[in-house]
Amino acid sequence: MSPKKAINLFTIGFTQKSAEQFFDTLIKAGVRYVVGLQPSYIY
Questions:
Q1: What contacts 15, CB < 8 A, 6 or more positions away?
Q2: Cα dist. 26→8, 11, 12, 19, 38 in Å?
């Protein structure tokens, strides 16, 4: 079995930010990948 690589995982809220502020924050932090997760309400 090959050794596992460590990753850094962070979260950032979007609700109180404009799209420009949100993406500017990510770019300045050197973020390379973004994963968007939203709750799914299935009844």
A1: none
A2: 14, 11, 9, 11, 19
Q: Fill in the amino acid letter for 41.
A: Y
Estimate to the nearest angstrom the gap between the alpha carbon of 23 and the chain centroid. 10
Residues in the chain with pLDDT < 50? none
Cα separation, 25 vs 1, in Å, equals 37
Which residue reads 């079995």 in tokens? 1
The beta-strand segments (E) located in the chain are: none
**What is the predicted pLDDT for the residue at 32?**
87
